[in-house]
Amino acid sequence: MTNVKKLVQNPVVEVGASAAAAAVDARVVAELVARAQAEGTPVGGEGGLLAQLTKLVLEASLQGEMDAHLGYAKHDPAGRDGKNSRNGKRSKTVLTEAGPVEIEVPRDRDSSFEPQIVRKHQRRLDGIDGIVLSLSAKGLTTGEISAHLAEVYGASVSRDTISTITDRVLEGMAEWQSRPLDEIYPVVFIDALRVKIRDGQVANRPIYLALGVTVDGQRDFLGLWAGEHGEGEGAKYWLRVLTEIKNRGVKDVLMLVCDGLKGLPDSVAVTWPQTVVQTCVVHLLRNSFAYAGRQHWSQIAKDLKPVYTAPTEVAAFDRFAEFSEKWEGRYPAIVRLWTSAWAEFVPFLAFDIEIRKVVCTTNAIESVNARLRRAVNARGHFPTEQAAMKCLYMALMGLDPTGQGRGAWVRRWKPALNAFDIHFDGRLTAANR
Question: Function, please (predicted)?
Answer without folding.
Answer: Required for the transposition of the insertion element.
